[in-house]
Structures are given as C-alpha cells and as structure tokens.
Design a protein that fits this description.
It is a single chain. By secondary structure, the chain is mostly helical. The protein contains 38 helices and two strands. A hairpin with a 7-residue loop joins β1 and β2. α34 packs parallel to α36. The termini are far apart.
Length: 800
C-alpha cells in the first residue's frame, strides 16, 4: 500500500443528485462538543417516521459526517475507529429499518469510504508499530468489508455515482493487494481487477487526478514504468491537480524502480515537502539504491540512508520509526567497516519490528566497531542499549553478562552507573521469574555494589530503594530504615521510602498486639507518629499528592486500636477532603472516616456509610479495601466491650457481603475473595452468629498465596471460637513451621497450641508443650506472653 497522505481520505464522493447529497472533500475537524450537542437530537430525527425518507436520508448522512469529522480530529487510534464504527453502524441501521430507501447505493458507498478510512488509519499505525499483528488484521478486515460493500453496488453505468464507486473499489483493491506477497495470485488478480475498473475516465474533474495516480501506481507494480510516468505527468497537469505530496509519492516510486536515483533525489529536494516527510522519502530512495546500487555504489547509498535517518532522529519525528523499520525489512545490512551508528540504527529498527534479541546482537556489532575506532565510552553506550533489548525480551541472563562488561570497564564513562542499575534490575527480574542460579543474595550484592561504587549518582537512589525492599522482605527493618532514610527529600523516591517506612512501622505495631503489652507498644507508636509528623513537615515543598499520602498514613496510624486517637484520625481525613485528591485517595479517605466513626461510637453513621459503599467504591482500590477490612477485624477483636465488637462486626458485614454477592463483577481475584469470605465469617462470629459463620466457611479454602501469620492466627482464633479445636491445632502447627523459633509470634503460636490442647482435654500434651518451651526459652517470651504461659501451667497443674 502506498503511503499517500490523509488528503485522499477526505476525497469527494459526489452524490447522484447534486445539492441533495454532498460527500465532502476536505472537512474541517469538528470540536468534540459538537458530537454531544447534535448526535442525540439528529438520531432522534432520523428515527422519526413522520418525516419523509428522503429528508431522513440527508440527516443520516449528515450525522455520519459529524462522526467522520470527529474521527479525523481524534489522535487516539481507538477513538478514531470507534467514531467510524458508529458512523457505519448508523448508515447500516438506517438501511435495515428502511429497506425501500431510494439511495441504497449512496449509503453503501459512504459506509465503504468509512471502512477504507479505518483501514488507512490502521495502516498508518502498522507503519509505526509493525510488530503488532493485530493492527494488520484490523486493516485487512476493514478493507475486505469496504470491498464487499463496493462490489455489491458497482456497475458499468455512466454517471458521477458509478464513477465514484468504481474509483473507490479500484483504490480499495489496490490497497488490499499491497498487503499480500508480491507474487501471490490473489495480489495480481486484485491489481488486474483494479486496472479494469479504471479503464473509464471519471466525469468528475476532482477525481481525475487521483484516478491517474492510482492507475500509475498499478502500472508501476506490473513493470510498465514509461506508461506510469506518462500518467503521472498527465495527472499533475489536471485542473485541479492532486497535492504535490501525492504526485511525488508515486513519481519517486517509478523513478526508483527505473533506478533513476539521482533524478528522484532532485525531485524530492526541489519539493516543498515538510522536513520529516522529505527526509523519509530520501531515506527510501537511498534504501532502494542500496538494494540495487546505482553509479554511486552501495557504500554511498548506505551513507545517504544513515544521514537521512540521523536527520529524522534530530527532528524527533515519528517518521524515524517508519524509516528504521523499512530499513530492517529490506534486509540491507551495513558493511563491518561502516561507522557504528549504522549498526545502532539497524538495532533500533529491529527492535521496532519486534526482535529485541537480534537488536541486541546488532548493538554488539556497533560496540565492536566503536572499540576498533578507539571509542570505548561509545562502545559501552551501545552495549548498554543492547542489554536493554535483552532485558526487554526477558533474556535477563544475557543482559546481565553484557552489562558486566560495561560495569567492569573503567573507561565506560556515564554508562557505568546506568549499566550497574540495569544489572540489578535484570537480576531482580530473573529472581522473580525463578531463573536457575539466581539468588536473592546475588541481587542484594548487586544493589549494594551499586550504592558503594556510585554513591552520588542518581541510580544509587533507586538502588537504596530496591535494597530497602529486599531487607524489609528479609525481616531486617533496621537495615531497610537506614537505606530508605538516606534517600534525599529532593528525590522522587523519597515519598515512596517514607510511605513504605510508615507502613512498616505500623504493621510491626499491629503484629505485636497479641504478644506485647500496650505500655511496651506505646514508645513504638510514638516513634511512628513522630516520623510521620517530621515527614509531613519535610513534604511542605513537595506536590500536594505527597502531602495527602502522608495525611492518610497519619490517619491510618491513629486508627490502630487501643493506641491511636480516632478523633485525630478523623481530623486528618477532614484535612484531606479539602485538598485535590485522586480517586484512590478520596476512596481511602472515606474508608478511613467510616472506621473512625465506628471507633468514636457513632455506629449509625458508620453503618450508613458502609451500606452506601457500593455507590462510592473504587474497584481499582481493592487492596486498600482489604486493608480496611483487616483493620476493622483488628478493632473488633480488641474491643473492650461486647457492644463495640458487635458493631464493628456489623460494619464489616455491611461492607463485605454486597461485594461477595457481585461474583465475577466485583473485580476481586481468588485470593482477595478467599480472605474477604474469611473476614466475613469472623464478623458474623463477632455479631454472635456462629451458625452464619460456619455457613460462610462452607467450601472455603485458604488463599493460594502464602498466608501470612496474621491471617493464620486469626484463622486459628476463629476455629477456637467455633470450638473446632482440631482445626485450630492444625493451623497453630502450621504457624510454628513458618515462624522463626524464639520470635514473639512463635511464642504466641506455642501458647495458643497449648491452650487449644487444654480446651480439648489433652492436658498432658499441653503441659509437655509448655515445659518444652520453658527448657528452650526460660523466659517464655517475656512480658504478657510469659504471664499467659505461667497462668496456663498453673491451671494445668491444678487440674492434675
């Protein structure tokens, strides 16, 4: 398919009755608000059977034209296609409702024009993104539909309308043939059919020039270059002539096919094409010459090709992608002695066409050539890009090996720190993908080396952030804190580090609720609160969104039961509501306020908010919803009174039940649904409905992901409350297998296992468990845990 401009898309299609129908030439894009203002009213008039069919036909065409103008004004491909689809649907719908309409052919022609326009848009998109096969499939489908519609109404009759139909069918056939292999029988058949359709000259003067250009293109394909050249000359003299760009496009193809490269360049250089279009056309001429060298030889053609590509790169024009992709598709590869820039350009084009691994190989050739020229720093840059292509292709081991060359080269210059960070990322991705031989230790070492070797480089900030996540996952909060607090307030990652630290401090406090006294947790809570206050002060010069996130964290901390101040949390959230919030932030603030109302004893208001939750829920924020439910569960299980526990349970039920009833429409994954079902069962139990809790758990299973200790502890607690002690024992044993011996949670699991043995009447096993624990750890965990163990041992001794 030729890359003729969008002027053709707006070509006139003149109706049989002038003045009644006008398929306009160039159409000024209509503002978007025209659609919203006019479409609804026009569609209503189109369907008004009290109006004559002829008048409603005019309205239908005008409405479709409005949608066409909207499509042309759109920059997003999906929006363009949607407008044209609607235009075609409107015309087809009118024909179906009015089978006796007088102008069926005009409607089919206009619908075919819109389908052709869709194909053209897809073609332009494919030129930019040739690696996406779906784009070409869309183009083929649109052209096939256009051809079918036009074949249904084509005829040999004279007149403006039949001329238009034959012309459009010939054009669509030529475009469709160009999508097939050069020697495919169907391609040749379509070209021949198109030429036959163009045998009669059109009676409409505005079609004559384009008619000649299409015929010239078809003759060029069949090798009849002199006839094609004559037609181009004739078309350019017609009044009005086709635009210069359209004439030039076909003319250059004919000249390059005739190997008249110097003449082709002269024509282009003398034209008034925009700089990017001129550079692209000259690159195509150079590419054709490189495939079949002229007097200047292949080396000169390749040099010219590279110059035009570099000119496009300087312009930062989208035509750069087209030129590079066409270079790769041609199969022309530079000589090994050519400058490395040629191999680099070929690598970029190869990546555009979807072969990142091959692109990496070309970058290595560029690097090798650069090294021969003494450009070690340039060679490092090419290898860095090659590693990026490997990374993009998921070849992390190959990327790691290539990056090691850059990182280990003291002459690599600015590429060294970038290569070091990319190597870290490659190891992280390989680790996540389960690649053999890649360990978390190797990943952490790479990050640590990045920080040590490039402490002042911006890449060290990202390395600190990533290594902090590694240490956090390992359970070393202090190392994570040290790394994250070293990130300067001016860095983009500063807010991420602050939020991660705040969340980690809060989670640590909540995880100790079952094992530590309130007095022991108070200092940690105060430290977390001060950290957030200091962070908020430091964030005054940052974006408002960062300040909102810190306010939300402050509110979340104040909602921690027994330690926080719900009234203060509500005040923080009220401050948020006076700021510019994203959808997610607004949703989290409202969830927090609902919990604060319940914690303040304003149960009716909290329950009303929970009942209305489906009207203000944000499906994209399901993890935040799950966190809110966990917090409500924590509040209920630590409530000082039965009334408060019941009301917290009711809020959970009102929030969760409607969501679970939505089924697949709830946007919940399997793990989220599993945990929410479990939390609902606990809520019912808090409300004093054990039978409802049991029914809720019927057929339930643990989330497929590794369940954390908090969920397992709550599950064991649920089974104990339901007096299903055997299952509680199994869950506590699972906790012990997962936990580090001697940790507070490990002592808690041992204590709860002993308590469950006691409740089940297995006193000997309970006593043995306590004694065994005291031998290994005489302090029995210390604090409140030690007191619990001692009291239970006393009860067991008394019972004996």
């Amino acid at each position: 398919m030729s890359l003729w401009s969008h002027v053709f898309q707006r070509l006139v299609v003149v109706a049989a009755a002038p003045g009644v129908f006008s398929f306009a030439f160039a159409q000024t894009p209509t503002p978007i608000d025209e659609i919203s203002q006019h479409l609804a009213g026009m569609k209503k008039q189109i369907n008004d059977v009290s109006v004559g069919v002829a008048q409603r036909e005019i309205l239908a065409i005008e409405t479709a034209g409005t949608l066409d103008r909207a499509a042309q004004a759109e920059t997003r491909i999906d929006a363009k296609q949607a407008n044209w689809d609607e235009a075609v649907g409107l015309l087809d719908g009118f024909r179906e409702k009015n089978p006796d309409q007088p102008r069926v052919k005009e409607f089919q022609l206009q619908a075919a024009v819109y389908r052709w326009a869709q194909a053209r848009a897809w073609h332009d998109q494919h030129a930019l993104f040739p690696a996406d096969p779906a784009i070409r499939a869309h183009e083929v489908s649109a052209l096939d539909d256009a051809i079918a519609r036009l074949r249904a109404v084509v005829s040999d009759e004279p007149g403006v309308l039949p001329d238009n139909i034959r012309f459009r069918l010939a054009w669509a056939l030529a475009d469709r043939a160009d999508l097939e292999d050069a020697k495919a029988p169907t391609r040749l058949a379509r070209d021949e059919e198109a030429l036959k359709l163009l045998e009669k000259l059109p009676t409409e003067p505005r079609l004559a020039g384009y008619h000649g250009l299409i015929k010239a293109e078809l003759l060029r394909r069949s090798g009849k270059l002199p006839e094609a050249a004559a037609l181009i000359t004739e078309a350019s003299k017609i009044d009005p002539p086709p635009p210069e760009a359209e004439v030039l496009d076909v003319s250059v193809r004919v000249l390059t096919d005739a190997r008249k490269y110097t003449e082709a360049k002269s024509v282009v250089n003398a034209s008034k094409l925009p700089p990017a279009a001129k550079a692209l056309t000259l690159a195509r001429i150079a590419l054709a010459e490189a495939r079949a060298p002229g007097d200047g030889g292949r080396a000169a053609a390749e040099k010219e090709l590279l110059q035009q590509v570099q000119a496009l790169r300087i312009l930062k024009a989208p035509e750069t992608r087209i030129a590079l992709a066409e270079w790769v598709a041609s199969g022309v590869e530079p000589d090994d002695l050519v400058d490395p820039e040629a191999w680099d350009a070929l690598a970029e084009g190869t990546e555009i066409r979807g072969d990142s691994v091959k692109a990496a190989g070309f970058e290595e050739k560029a690097a090798a050539r650069a090294e021969k020229n003494g450009g070690n720093e340039a060679a490092a840059g090419y290898r860095l890009r090659g590693a990026g292509f490997f990374f993009q292709a998921g070849k992390y081991e190959e990327a790691d090996a290539l990056l090691a060359k850059v990182v280990g080269d003291p002459h690599a210059g600015a590429s060294r720190p970038k290569a070091g960070l990319l190597q870290c990322l490659a190891r992280g991705r390989a680790l996540a993908a389960g690649a053999p031989g890649v360990t978390s230790q190797a990943y952490a070492e790479a990050l640590d080396r990045q920080i040590r070797e490039f402490p002042d480089d911006p890449t060290a900030i990202e390395a600190r952030w990533l290594l902090g996540n590694v240490e956090q996952a390992r359970g070393d909060r202090e190392k994570a804190k040290k790394l994250w607090t070293a990130i300067p307030p001016t860095a983009a990652r500063w807010i991420d580090a602050r939020l991660a630290l705040a969340d980690a401090m809060r989670r640590n406090i909540e995880s100790q609720f079952a094992t530590a006294d309130d007095d022991a947790l108070a200092p940690e809570f105060a430290a977390a609160s001060k950290f957030l206050t200091d962070s908020q002060e430091a964030a005054r010069s940052r974006a408002e969104s960062d300040q909102v996130e810190l306010l939300l964290r402050e509110a979340r901390l104040e909602l921690v039961p027994k330690l926080g101040k719900p009234r203060q949390a509500r005040d923080f959230l009220d401050r948020c509501n006076g700021m510019n919030l994203t959808t997610s932030q607004r949703y989290r603030a409202r969830l927090g306020r609902t919990i604060a109302l319940a914690a303040l004893g304003r149960y009716v208001e909290a329950e009303r908010e929970a009942q209305q939750h489906p009207t203000w829920a944000d499906p994209a924020s399901r993890p935040d919803f799950l966190d809110a439910i966990r917090l409500l569960d924590l509040c209920a299980s630590n409530s000082p009174t039965d009334l408060q526990q019941r009301r917290f349970g009711l809020v959970v039920r009102l929030l969760v039940q409607p969501l679970l009833r939505e089924g697949e429409d709830s946007a919940l994954d399997a793990d989220q649904r599993s945990e929410l079902t479990f939390r609902l069962a606990r809520a019912l139990l808090f409300q004093g409905d054990p039978r409802g809790a049991q029914e809720t758990l019927r057929g339930w299973s643990l989330p497929r992901r590794t369940a954390d200790d908090r969920l397992l502890r709550d599950l064991a607690d649920l089974y104990s409350r339901l007096e299903v002690y055997e299952l509680a024992i199994d869950v506590n044993r699972l906790r012990l297998r997962n936990l580090a011996a001697g940790s507070p949670s490990w002592f808690d699991a041992r204590y709860n296992l002993a308590l469950t043995y006691y409740r089940l009447g297995r006193r000997k096993e309970a006593l043995q468990l306590i004694e065994g624990t005291s031998i290994l750890h005489p302090d029995l965990g210390g604090g409140s845990l030690q007191e619990k163990f001692i009291r239970l041992r006393q009860r067991l001794s008394t019972a004996q």
